[in-house]
Amino acid sequence: MEIRERLVYILKHYKWIQYTYRKLTSYLFRFVGLFLKIEDDLILINSWAGKTYSDSPKILYETMLKDPRFKNYRYVWAFEDPNKFDVKGCDKIKIDSWKYFTTALRAKVWITCVNIERGLTIKKKKTIYINTWHGAGTKKIGNACAGRHDYDLANVNMMLTQSEFENEIFIRDFKCRKESLRKIGFPRNDELFHVTEELRTQCRKELNIPEGKKVILYAPTWRDSKDGGLSYRVEPPINLEKWRKEFSDNYVMLFRMHPFTTIFNMQYDDFARDITSFVNLNHILAITDVLITDYSTIVYDSAVANIPFICFGFDYERYYAERGFYFDLNERYPGGVLHTEDEVIARVKAALQGEDKEKYEAFRKKYIEAGGQSTKQVLDELNKLLING
User: What is the pTM of this model?
Assistant: First the structure.
């Protein structure tokens, strides 16, 4: 895995190598594709570049399995390590393998929350490409990032968004066609629009949250490798003893890392728990009372669930210089950007008391314009496209 991650890092950071690889490999597979006929009953799916079985692709897949309109289709899931995942009703293949790309060339439908082509340009005209993405908004993405000009999602048939703000980003920074955008929200978030007390009770049992205790969730975003692609670590300045002293009597603190990062060194116990391997983010958010994050798009998921969020920007200046943001976080985020652990602890207490409730509601109104029925809307449209050929 380290060799693969190192190669990914090289392709991302050495532009002439990336350009040469993309051009030559795209030509190769487009040539191969001339001899591979599209199979009208074949659907290829991946989530988070093959790292997980999760997110909107998982929701769409599991709904399709129960939908009689899609009973005669064959499904293929692509993973970095297919043996790690027990997924019913499908075949599994290794992402970025020869079989993966030839399957992509034969598949009638592609479904992903990141990408299918893996930086190449191999989509056939009759292939239906659904990209649910995973939220846009705070940190710059795509071609807005320094030195990036290679993102091109003009061949996507359905690109899901949840606001006009995101529409503008996808058109400008991913080169999406306006007619491909579907402002309907994300399938993964449909459940968050309809959270019940019964679901919360179920989720608390799943995560073994003691009766009467509230939940603080810490979920930071991805950060680029500092060692040439050997690791992608997040190591925020958190002293867990301080948090235990302040909150352990009445709270549980959950830590969830981004799928593309590795966990930082932390001493976990009954108060502080690593739940990165618990893939159902909705069930985590359903029981969360306050979210601590940084520049992650999870703030928009928390807005759907009406959870107050706190921006712990311990590396704000460096991240701003290296990646950049679409807006001034100090102006748009309730509470602004906090730089120290003590500031965050004080803000957690204030948020739990309902401070800035109106500001959180205004944030939700601006950035969450759609959602709640996204899964149905995507599959209804997909069914029509398949019927019409």
Answer: 0.88
